[in-house]
Amino acid sequence: MASRHGQDSNTVELIASIAGRVPSRNLHSLVLWQLGVAIVRGDYPEGTVLPSDTELLARFSVSRTVLREALKTLAAKGMIEARARIGTKVLPQTRWNLFDGDVLAWHFEAGPDVDFLRSVAEVRIGIELESAALAAERRSPEQAERLVSLAEVMGRATTAEEFARADLAFHRAVAEAANNPFMASISTLVEVALTAVFTISSPVSNPAKLAHTAAAHKAIAAAIHDGDSLAARNAMRTVITDGFARSAERLQTQ
Hints:
The protein is about 70% helix and about 5% strand. The chain is mainly alpha-helical.
């Protein structure tokens, strides 16, 4: 199933690989993925009732057990709710767990719009600016050096995939250097956003943009290395807002 941005199953697997995850291939995960994307895409709008179990079983050619497990998983993510004598109803998006890695991935698979990317960027600002500030206060010498090294790797990247891997590793390293277990636990949002936006826009194809992006990350690394919390915050804001602007521009020209 391809999204309106041309994202197919091979790209999805590449995103999972970049994030360090192995995409599951069992029947449960396939049914879950297709139903999740369909709901996010609006095939089944909020407030509507999903097709009956009989229709879904025929569509996916799976056992009733597999289907019910997929529906239970969607319910646990806040996307659907089974109601007696009514059926399985699609819940409002305000009920969905948007921090869930699958739900975020489904949004990117369905094809995010600029408003969704802006919302992700705003939440990233709320999380990562504080993470960068804490990292400046708490990082070990080894963590500081690793950030500098990763920023340099980003500047030398020759492919979009190579850049994406280094970018993801950099932001993970910032979260780790913050030495706050909650920062690391909510980093799924950052990981999915970075690895999925890689399919929308990458600065690697433009030497000037690549140099600018690498320099912005080097500024984060330098501020954290120097223990400058304010500079780390400001540099992280620049990276996030620039990344949003680049992706939004690409979407608007498609």
